[in-house]
Amino acid sequence: MITRPVRPFSPYDPLGLMPKQFPSGFLVAVLLTASGLLWAVMFFGPLAHLSRLSGGMTPFDIRPWGYSYAEARAFLEAIGAEGRAYYASPELILDAFYPPLYAVSRGLALWWLTMPGRIGKAPVPLKVRWALIAVPILMATLDVIENGCIAMMLWTWPHLSNGVVEISGLATQVKIISGALTETLMAGLAVVCWRACLLAEFTTDVLEDTWTTGSKCQKSQKLSSADVLLRAKSRPISQPPCNPVRRAG
After folding, report:
1. Which of 62, 209, 215, 233 lies in the 20 to 30 Å Cα band around 30?
2. Which domain holds residue 139?
3. Do the domain assignments include residue 242?
C-alpha cells in the first residue's frame, strides 16, 4: 500500500493547502506588472482627461493633501456634466479593480521577499510578515472607501455632504501615505534580498576556491611524497668503503 507523506505543520499554512514555494517569483512578477499597467492606464487615461476638463485641476484620487468641501465643489463644477459622467465611468469602473489587485500583488511580493532564508539566515517572525502585508491591505481598503465617497458625490450632485467630502479627503491622504510606505518597504526588502544573494554567491565562490586550492595542495603534497619515495628507491645504496686490515709482517 502506497502512503502519501504527511507534510509537517507550518504556521504559515495551517491547512497544508499552499504549494511549498507559494508564491512563486513568476506569479509575483506577473501580478506586479498587471497592477502597474492598470495604474498607468488610469493615470494617463481617465485621470489625465479629467484634469484637462477641469482646466488643470488635480482629480480627487491623486491629491496627497486631501481636499476641502470648497475644493471638491470647485472641481466637480469645473469638469461639468460630461466630466462627472466620465468620472463615474470609466474612471471609477477601472478603479474598482485596482484596490484588490494592488493588495494581492504587493501582499504576495512582501510575503515572497520575507520567505525563510531569503533576506537572512534567521526567518522573519510571522507577526512581522503579517504586519507588512497589512500595509497594502490598508491602502486598498482606503481606496475602496475613497471610491465610494466619490461615487456618492457624483450621484448626489449638486448636493454635497460635508461629512462625505471629509471622509473622502482623509481616506485619500492616508491611502497615499500607506501606498508610499508599501512601495518603500518593497524597495528596501528587495535591496536587502539582493545584497543577501550577492553575499551568498560570494561566500560560495570563496568556499569553492578554498576547497579547490586545498585539494590541489593535498594532491601536490601526495605527488611530492610519492616522488621522493620513488627517487629513494631508485637511488643505489651506498656501501661504506672497504678498509682491509693490514697484516703485520
Report:
1. 62
2. 25-204
3. no
pLDDT digits (tens, 9 = 90+) for 38-57: 999 999 999 999 999 999 99
Whether 235 has a pLDDT exceeding 80, the answer reads: no
Residue with more model confidence, 160 or 235: 160
| Torsion angle of C-alpha atoms 163, 167, 169, 174, degrees rounded to 10 | 160
Indicate whether 98 belongs to any domain: yes
216 domain residue, yes or no: no
Q: pLDDT digits over 54-95, tens only? A: 999 999 999 999 999 999 999 999 999 999 999 999 999 999
Q: Are 183 and 205 in contact (CB under 8 A)?
A: no
For residue 25, name the pLDDT band (cuts at 50, 70, 90): confident
Q: Distance between CA atoms of 165 and 100, rounded to whole angstroms?
A: 23
Q: Find the Cα–Cα–Cα–Cα dihedral 103, 105, 106, 110, rounded to 10°.
A: 130
User: What are the cell numbers at 56?
Assistant: 488643470
Task: Report d(CA 109, CA 29) in Å as an integer.
Answer: 8
182 in Cβ contact with 136 (< 8 Å): yes
- Residue 88 burial (10 A CB sphere; 0-12, 13-18, 19+): middle
Work out how many domains the chain is built from and give that number.
1
Tell how far CA 11 is from the center of its chain: 21
CB 63 within 8 A of CB 172: yes
Residue 64 lies in a domain: yes
